[in-house]
Structures are given as structure tokens and as C-alpha cells.
Structure prediction request, 640 residues.
Amino acid sequence: KTPTPLIDVPQGVSFITEDQLEDQAIHQLNEALRYVPGISMETGEGHRDEVFIRGQETTADFYIDGLRDDAEYYRPLYNVERVEVLKGANALIFGRGAGGGAINRVSKTAEFGVPAYSLGAQVDTFGAFALTGDANLPASENIAVRVTGTYEEFDNHRDVYDGRFFGISPTVTANLGPATRLYAYYTYDDDERVVDRGLPSIDGGPLRGFDETFFGDPDYNFSDVEVHVARTRLEHDFSGAWSLNASLMFADYAKFYSNIVPTSGTTATTTRLAGYESGTDRQNLIGQLNLVGQIDTGSVHHTLLVGVEAGSQDTDAVRNSALFNGGADTSVTVPLDRTISVPAFTLQPQRASTSELSTLSFYAQEQLDIGILQLVAGVRYDRFDLETTDLIANFDAARVDERWSPRFGAILKPQPNLSIYASYAESFLPQSGNQFTVLSQQDETLEPETFENIEAGVKWAPHPELLLTAAVFRLTRSNTTAPDPANPGLVILAGESQVDGFELGATGEPVDGLSISLGYAYLDGEITSTTTGATAGTVLQQVPEHQITAWARYDVTERIGFGAGLTHLSEQFASMSNDVVLPSYTRVDAAVFFEATDALSLQLNVENLFDEEYYPSAHGDNNIQPGAPLNASLGARLRF
Prediction:
């Protein structure tokens, strides 16, 4: 929200550039985030982005150009310039949630200058393919237009799996005067795919020998998502010191998915299945206004931020559960075989709800540069007003939360290319969770959960094209529900968890022709005070103790380059039960790049070069996703 050099931001930040996304042949956000240290992947039930950031699970801390994009779906990257991950709680910038951090996609915009066009195609050894297009046209001195689009068809090593994605995103940039610029964006995404819930567990680990078996119903496991997002952003410079930007976004999300899923109870000869279907319609309207001032008083430089954000969200949600054995049971035991046979089932309503959410926020921040020392201090006020109706129980609930969230930081700069910092920041999350579909009678009475991030670190740029970072932090989550010892069946806000961690990073071009993105994260997370779901001492779910991410590209000549990548995660628990372990793994990727002509480039990407058997993510103990074996993709891109 302010023009602050990355080296002077007093928190951990990771970013993935458009070049890296192209080099790795990545098309979706969840694939890209595997290369960010401190992030581990949840399977998202096979139909949505879901991640753990510094041990905090989220389906909603996603943003597009700083505006909340919180519906549950897979986010594409065909219209994205880069991905930014701000780590640690920070409500001042993003508002509620963002307990472990926030993920922001920066959009491609229409640019002035010469026209530029590109076409791309990619196909892999499973038969999946992608077609992409990007056309940027300066229509006049003051108007530029850009259209990006893609069509993909999905396939992988798993039986049954397929799907397709279509997306198109036109944008306009307009110069309204020498000091005023307007951006307008529209995006339409249409995603259809098989919902694959992975494998069950057995004997404390993933079920082995069934990595290709589909534990679902090929005719029923399906998701369909349509997303419309329209946005505008107005930027105006009043003078050399003051500027204003205003953004408005309307988003409409329509989603339905249905699935049969593996559940607990797998033996050497049988497995157990359950199922349900769910639909969600959501409309978001968000407006944001920021006033930024950069002024000097004597030898002190000030960067001032004053902002306001308001939003509304309307959600209709429904869920129906599958019943087996003539409607008598919610789960069924079937033979464990190479192909799973799903018996007949019926559906019954499980829950249905409507919700109306309105938010209003005010925030202010001051950054003082007094030479060798910089100070950051700010605070945000949030009013969070939620009204829900449970249509099955015929119950209305409402709650209003008002929170103040501070942020403080100090940056010591012994030289311009070196920052030594310490920071403190808070965030909060209402007890309704991060999707806000329905409030229970109990949640209606409870104060929000709180997040506190304490961090210290170093950022050093030994030369302008390379940034080295190191950080230590403690992230504490409090006000979590816990059983009330005096009143069985009720809860109190006594639960707490804590994550202590250490991160290292190196990003940039240390020598000509070599680009790198390297990271390491150490995370130690556990429940420190008993919660509703786990006792004190429980290790947090899907939080590997050690994580290494690496990607490098080296151009041998102007025409030929090579790339290599590595991701390593130590073992992690699939859930808070701590009963099932996802084994540690190391996956190695490789790539070859060939500039055939000035306009035509070719690349070969190889994933899982050494054919590692691995299980990178889960949704609980019995929805474990097996990683893909050795595979390759061939891509071509034409630029003119």
C-alpha cells in the first residue's frame, strides 16, 4: 500500500516472478506455491486452493492486486505477472484473517509502447495440454488494451481424472491526464474437473500400492466453477508528495461439486467410503481508498498512509450427504481392489444457509526514515457484521465484532543495501471461520481468535540483482475454542497454539545468465493449550519441520539454457490426530530451454526426475494425495 523497497519491509516476503512461472511451466497457483518456503499444501478436497502459511490453514487469505478474493476455487495464473506472499499476521494491510500470512496475485496490465503478442502451447506425457494467448495493443496515446486467455485440458497419472479450464481477461489502461491513470479489468474463468480425494491411510501412513486407484465414483465426482471478476483502479498524483489510489471490485462466484470420498476404516481387504455434494453462490463488493504522502521535515522523511475499505458479501450455500444401504448409513464398506466399486446411494439435505457480511475498516500508518534507523507504526480498525440463517434448523444468528490491530517495526540500516529489522503485528479471525457461511448458537457468543507475529531478520542485497534474507519468528494463535471443564458440552476461549520458525532465502541473478530462487524454512508448531480439536502437546497438522525449495536457470548461450528445481519436505502429520504420517520426500525437476529464433522459444520440463514416490498433501487422515511419477511436458511460445 506504500512505495516501500522490499529490503525495508520488516517481515518475511517471498515472490514468484512471471519468468519463473514460465520456466517451470506452471499454470495454477497451488502448483507455484510449492516453491515458497514456509508454505505447505493442503489438498483442498480436490476442488480448491488451500494452504498452510507458517502453520496456519486457510482457504480465504488470497488477494488480487490487494483486494480480497476469498471464494473456494483453483486460481489460474494466465493473467498474473507475479505472486507475492507476505508472511506473518498483518491485519493492518489485509484485515481479518491472514493469521499466517497472505497471498497476493499481481495482474498483468495493458502497457504503452509497441504492440506485443504471444501464443503458447504445452502438452505433457499424460495427455494434458494448455493453449495460451496474450495481446497487448497501445490503441492511442492515452489508451492501451490487453487481452490474455487460456484453454487447458487436465490429465494425470490417476485413473479417471480429467477436466478442462477456460479463462479470458481483458484489461484497459487509460491516461486521464498527466497525473491520473485508470485501470479496468474483467476476468471470466470456467473450470470443470473430476474431484479426486486421494487415498485412505492404513497402519499410520498412506495406503501403498494404490497410487493410481480412484476412490470415488467416476460418474459423480465432479466440480464446476464459474468466476466473474470486474475491477477498476484509479491513481492520481496531487503533487510530488501526495498520491491517491481508489479500487473497486465486484466478484461473482458460482460453484458446485459432488464427491464420494475414502474415509476411516481401511483394512488389507476392504475400504470405507462416504460422500456428499455442495453448492455455493457468492457475490463480493469491495471498495478501497488509500492516501499516501511522502514528505520531509528537516532531516526526517515521512511516508504516511491513511486508508479506508468497505465491503459486502452475500453467500448462499447448500450441502447434501450421501446415504447407503437403502438410506440407512452415511458410509459403506467395499472391497479394496484396483478398481473401487461404489454401491448405489441416495442424497438427503445436510445443511443450507444464507449469510450477509458487511465490513468497514480504517487504517493509518507512519514510516519514519531518520537515516540509519527507520520506524514503522500503524493501526487498523475493523468492524465485522455477520448475519446468517440456518435454513435446515430455521435459526437466525448475528454477531458484530470490532477490533483494533496494531503493527510496529524498526529497521536498522548501517548501509543502504542492508536492513536489520524487528517487528510486531496482529490479526484476528471471527469464530465463524474464514468462509462465513453460517453461525452456530455457540459461535454467536464468542470473541474472535487472535494472531500475534513477533519477528526479527536481516535483508541484504550484495548487488542490485540479488537479495539474501534471514528471519526468526514466533507466531501465536490465541482465543481458540477449548472444552469447558466446568460445563461438559460447552466451550471456552482457552485454546492456544504456537509456531517458532526460521527462514532463509536467496533470490535474483548472482552472475550474468544465472537466476536463482532458494529457500529454507524450519517450523516447530504445536498446541500449547488444549483446544476443541487437540490436547496440549499435539504437533500442528501438515507443518513439516524442515522445508527446502530451490529453482535455478542458467543460460549457457543466448540460445540454450538449463533449469533445475528441488523441493524437500520432512515428514508431517496429516491431521491434528497425529495418527497418520506423510513421509518425507525430495522431488527433483529439470528443464531445457531453446531459443530457436528471435520469435520462437521451445522448452522441455521434466517433473520428478528420479521418479520419487511421495505424498505431498492431505485433507485429514484419509484423503492423502499421491504425487505424480516421472513425467515431462513440451512447450512452445511464439512472441511477435
